[in-house]
Amino acid sequence: MKIGNDISINVVSSTVSQSDSSESGKKTNKDLNSNKKSIWTRLPIVILTAIFCCTLWGSASPAIKIGYELFAIAPGDTPSRILFAGTRFIIAGIMVIVFGSILQKKVLIPKKSSILYILILACFQTILQYIFFYMALAFTSGVRGSIINAAGSFFSILLAVYAFRFEKLSVRKAAGMLIGFLGVFLCVTGGSASFLEGGFSIQGEGAMLIAAFASAVAGCFIKLFSQKENPVILSGYQFFIGGIVMSIVGNLMGGNLTIVSAGSIPLLVYMAFISAGAYTLWGVLLKYNPVSTVTVLGFVNPVMGVILSAIFLHEGAEALSIYTLIALVLVSLGIYIINKKSK
Questions:
Q1: Distance between CA atoms of residues 76 and 74, nearest Å
Q2: Residue 186 falls within a domain, yes or no?
Q3: 122 closest CA partner among 207, 214, 197
Q4: I need a surface site. Which of 85, 100, 197, 256 has the fewest CB within 10 A?
Q5: Across-strand partners of 12?
Q6: For the purposes of burial, counting CB atoms within 10 Å of the CB of 213, is it exposed (0-12), middle (13-18) or buried (19 or more)?
Q7: 112 within some domain
């Protein structure tokens, strides 16, 4: 589940690793039978809800870039970018906690033993990921950002296999990862000529790769920590704490949010809902369905990011370029192969 993937999100994101490992996909027959009567197990509902979540996550890149205009944030204004992100995630954290409390019919409060988990997640999932994510979108297009950010799905496989030892690397997952990384590489370079002529920048494409990696690390930590604590609690409180830290840092550095349009505040609330709403709905789908049934639809995420960037950021020419189309197909295919249930 990728949050925010945003993502990465990598939600998810929370970002939960986009792999169908035996641990994350483990459900007893009793659990599945008890869920059969739920509306959330109906295939049309699952597909539509998953596409809606991916649409929310895909809208993150254009929403952030539009937000830079509505709050008069210049590309080089790092303090204001950090403040902008921090404000969003304070609201997102509150939304997740409220939504989760309503769904579970009790106030969600973390255990004392979970404070360290929340702080670690706040560091990787919110602070590190989104400092670089917001930096990247100030220096690259929404189309490129949406495709490159999908690298988190492929980083998560490497981390799950070699760093966290959650699973073994199967031929299917290795193939999906290589195909996906090929698509990311093609998007990053845009062809060797473009790459050599300055088509790649550390502040843009490089920062997005770092954000994707931080998202993958956070996803693995969520998988590890959620064995001892409710993942909704972990995600909601890490959003909130990470947002507070980023807001304080942004203020101390001299950041400022100038409202230059009536749409500024509604956009900020919508951006918070991207993380909170998509995460909550994705979590509901995972609760009532096998993990692979839900995560296999994650390939829609970069597709929606490219489509929405083309529409709202007027990046249609870039979205329809041969390099972008091939990269998008490879990345989406890689995500699909990784999450496709083995026979």
A1: 5
A2: no
A3: 214
A4: 197
A5: 2
A6: buried
A7: yes
Residue 121's domain comprises 29-167+201-315
Domain count, the chain: 1
Place of tokens 């895909």: 58
User: Is residue 138 within a helix (H) or strand (E), and if so which, with residue range?
Assistant: helix 129-139
Helices and strands of the chain, counted as H and E runs: 17, 0
**pLDDT tier for residue 189 given thresholds of 50, 70 and 90:** confident
Look over the chain and give the mean of its residue pLDDT values, rounded to a whole number: 83
In a domain, 188, yes or no: no
Residue 37: CB atoms within 10 Å: 8
Asked whether residue 27 carries a pLDDT value surpassing 90, the answer given is: no
| C-alpha triplet 215, 122, 254: angle, nearest 5° | 105
8 Å CB contact between 338 and 180: yes
Give the pLDDT confidence score for residue 250 in this predicted structure.
Answer: 95
Rounded to whole angstroms, what are the CA distances from 229 to 112, 113, 117, 235? 11, 9, 9, 10
Query: Is position 259 within any domain?
Result: yes
Name 92's Cβ contacts closer than 8 Å, sequence gap at least 6.
Answer: 239, 240, 243, 271, 272, 273, 274, 275, 276
> Residue 131 and residue 164: Cα distance in Å, rounded?
24
Averaged pLDDT for residues 120-140: 93
Which pLDDT tens digit goes with each residue over 276-322?
A: 888 888 878 877 887 767 778 888 899 999 999 999 999 988 888 88
Backbone angles phi, psi at 12, to 5 degrees: 35, 70
